[in-house]
Design goal:
Number of domains of chain A: 2
Radius of gyration of chain A: 22 Å
Oligomer: heterodimer
Number of helices of chain B: 13
Number of domains of chain B: 1
Helix content of chain A: 40-55%
CATH architecture of the largest domain in chain A: 3-Layer(aba) Sandwich
Helix content of chain B: over 70%
Structural class of chain A: alpha/beta
Number of helices of chain A: 15
Shape of chain A: globular
CATH superfamily of the largest domain in chain A: Response regulator
Distance between the termini of chain A: 60 Å
Order of helices and strands of chain B: HHHHHHHHHHHHH
Radius of gyration of chain B: 21 Å
Largest sheet of chain B: none
CATH topology of chain B: ABC transporter involved in vitamin B12 uptake, BtuC
CATH class of the largest domain in chain A: Alpha Beta
CATH topology of the largest domain in chain A: Rossmann fold
Strand content of chain A: 5-15%
Number of strands of chain B: 0
Structural class of chain B: mainly alpha
Distance between the termini of chain B: 59 Å
CATH class of chain B: Mainly Alpha
Number of strands of chain A: 14
Amino acid sequence: MKLKLATLALTGLMAAAPAMADLVFPSLSYRTGPYAAGGIPFADGYADYFTLLNERDGGIGGVMTKVIECETGYNTEKGVECYEATKGEGSLVYQPLSTGITYQLIPKVTADGIPLHTMGYGRTSAANGKVFSHVFNYPANYWDGASIAVNHLLDINGGDLSGKKIALVYHNSAYGKEPIRTLEELSAKHGYELTTIAVDHPGQEQKSQWLQIRRERPDYVLMWGWGVMNQVAIQEAANIRFPMENFIGVWWSGSENDVLPAGDGANGYKSLALHGTGSDYPIYADIQKYVVDAGKAAGAGDQIGTVLYSRGLYAAMLAAEAAKKAQEIHGTADITPAMMRDGMEALEITAEILEANGLPGFGPEFKVSCENHGGPGLGMVQQWDASAKKWNIITDMIQSDKSVIDALVKEDSEAFAAENNIEMRCN
Amino acid sequence: MPDQLLFAMEVTLNGLMAGVLYALVALGFVLIFKASGIFNYAQGVMALFAALTLVGLQEGQIPFAHLINAILGTDLHHFGWHLTAIVAIVLTIGVMVLLAILVERIVLRHLVNQEPIILFMATIGLAYFLEGLGDLMWGSDIKKLDVGLPQGISETIDTATFNWFGYGFFIDKLDIFATVIAALLVIGLTLFSQYSKQGRALRAVADDHQAALSVGISLRFIWVLVWSIAGFVALVAGIMWGAKSGVQFSLSLIALKALPVLMLGGFTSIPGAIVGGLIIGVGEKLFEFAIGPMVGGATENWFAYVLALLFLVFRPQGLFGEKIIERV
């Protein structure tokens, strides 16, 4: 009997041991529902990168990685349930791909000591590491995005926007309202006239908004949309013959999904880009060899090379690099969420690292610090070529206006700290 | 003429057009409710499923390809054909009829004489099932709908109004087309229900199930018929809305636009769905134009429901709905 019990215990231990050793990267994905078309490529890119690391490199620092996927349906309540269900699995970092879920998770991850990375979304003022110890939003946030768009317009207008009319068409949600304050501040600085036009969820019907744009004839339209709102807005803009090169979406309004339904009408539409686009990067040869050909691609394997797949890949690469940094700092391959947080705070992405990962020039070089969890605030502009059905990057990295944004980040984060009795760090 | 008046006229015209699109969705609800007393929660998903099937058939996509590939390790995607729009539409109608038969056989047949709430719950289940089935069959990516519908500004109206008023009105050619289709649909449905044998049977069932059964009308046949017609209406709605945004899973949410139309027009009246749609369309657009800028915009969704609720206060059965009198 004792022998049987000992065998059973040993078997259990052996079965459990590899799971404990894995580096767990939860993926709060949405492969179903109205936003699935955006959620699937991101989740595929995220999963495929870790599969590549396992198959090609034997994991990170000799420890295999494990992606636990949990379906949120882009629903905030389900997102929180997913967090609660997976946090006990040794989850190292959460990337929920939803501003709504992010807001709910900020107090939870801080209490649980698990880092949260919201790349280009979430709570913008979380860039202030003095207040938000466990939240990171490098390499750029919404306010950077608004400023990058305005800086691009300054570039193409000889540095002068005075007297120009800019309209912001935005998703009527916390996400969509994020850039308004920044655009107002920049309006005061650069002398353009700002009009804000809200679109209710889901954005299937936008006739009123585009009639207003047709009447008021702004020089430029900026868009903060997601899901069906993007496709309808681009179609309506084409319908009223708004010059597409004067229509710029945020990086969440710039995937193939957003422009393809409008066909040739979308030609010339621009969007911000957090990273490079297309599959002309060396990493894709490795993905083909170690992931696709091995039959281990996530999902249907049909999203490779798309903008949102690239974003998932980039998010995973940044997480993996932070994990490497954590292993380096703490001298152990088996890192905990607390160590992962340290790795994220000490993360440095250089051109050499990008090249070594098969992604040369894919994103900006940057360094995270205790004070700055938001990165450099750099982004590019891409433009849709409808005949070739591809996005082309048309600018170099554009720096956001930190003199305006840092002040806004400080104001908002310090107000949050005061409300929640948070003691400032990094002193 | 003052600019604001011209703008208001343009907004009103566009509101009427948007109302037609809302009415197209509402029509499907009305048809099923009228014939069987079921509030079909799955109507929006049926529009999505029909549009997905249309694009899938037209593009020669292999149904369940992802599932087949995952199980058998194959790499199947397309049959290699591209059907003309009309052939794809006819085949899709066939699929919707098949769906109606299956709904009757698998769901409704077993729920005869159940409370309306049970039937309503069954349609909720059907909605989730159909959404999942559509995903499995055709995938979740956004598909471009290309059935040759006209789209973009109507030059004729733009030029004519510019010559009259000095300001060219924007009317989308797709909206004009949708209006014509909706008018033909209503005329067709009216002629069918008034003058065909099946149509009269359908009206008999709508009036009194028991009496209709007693004169030999098959309830099952009528249910298949009405779900088939609702499937056809869903296909039309799916095409019109899908042409605007591409065919994607948020199409199922267009049902939300139909609810205030139904509350206003009544659940049992085809003209009610049309008039309700027009009132909601014009009301929400004019409100957004006149009041929206003062309250931060994005008023359309909630205003439609407020308008419907106001009507409910005075006419609980809706504008054209049948007054419910129950003996106690």
